[in-house]
Amino acid sequence: xxxxxxxxxxxxxxxxxxxxxxxxxxxxxxxxxxxxxxxxxxxxxxxxxxxxxxxxxxxxxxxxxxxxxxxxxxxxxxxxxxxxxxxxxxxxxxxxxxxxxxxxxxxxxxxxxxxxxxxxxxxxxxxxxxxxxxxxxxxxxxxxxxxxxxxxxxxxxxxxxxxxxxxxxxxxxxxxxxxxxxxxxxxxxxxxxxxxxxxxxxxxxxxxxxxxxxxxxxxxxxxxxxxxxxxxxxxxxxxxxxxxxxxxxxxxxxxxxxxxxxxxxxxxxxxxxxxxxxxxxxxxxxxxxxxxxxxxxxxxxxxxxxxxxxxxxxxxxxxxxxxxxxxxxxxxxxxxxxxxxxxxxxxxxxxxxxxxxxxxxxxxxxxxxxxxx
Length: 373
Known about the structure:
The protein is about 60% helix and about 5% strand. By secondary structure, it is mostly helical. The protein has a domain at about 10-105 and about 210-350. Helix 1 (about 10-60) packs antiparallel against helix 9 (about 320-360), helix 3 crosses helix 6 (about 225-260) and helix 6 (about 225-260) crosses helix 7 (about 270-275).
């Protein structure tokens, strides 16, 4: 058995501290590259948006814009420029980090609502079962074998209605009757409560590690100090950027509908599904979305195509060499952080193993007193 006092050549605590110092240096460089990427994006956004509108109108009806009155055309240009300016103000590192916090809170509200909805459905099933058993006039139900599964078209995880950004409305749980529910429902209820606690605790390490700490220390601009948290920060910033561009695209599409340049408006949920790769799209120009809807309208038995503006970072980088260079440097930091995260997990396991060996090999005070007696 090895001596616990003998220290290995590479101490896990020293290696973790070294990774933390390297992570702080990496965070400084990453912040500068992210700020430069957003600066180039703000410069390219007005031209890219106008080009997307030109391509869209050219595919739908090139003469539609010229048939509009002069006042309508001027108001449309002014409205689009105003939307671009308002979006450009929000395309900074600090503003995107605030949006990341809002998105995390929105996700927690949705998870809490899903858990409460599932508990409500379990409570309703319990009330219905108790009411059916206590009612003497209820018709006899057909006995089902033990362990049978009842299928229903209603999903217990129905998404809340309304604006997803405003947060779901949480309804209070129904009061439980005096009679205790069955053991199976108790087990299911406890499992769902534990699952909700686990989902909430799963996000705690990232927040506790200083991923979005508002205290500024040095030049790292309150970025995370751990490799895994910094890697999560990169993914969260990309998601926040896509959310900003999606909001701008939807606002431009709404303005086109008001000006008479568009006849349909795709919902935000469908745009999100396209960004996630859940909906198949048709080939078209960059920053323009073409969807084939399976609708039989007149002689169009194969469906109809719906086009709208959808600004995406991939399309913007495809048209801009400067933006591609910035993204290339960001990917270099991403690959380096992946290596640092593997090293961090390795030395964390070594540290836990060493702590466990120390407690196993070192006798406790009570064991020493018993052996002395």
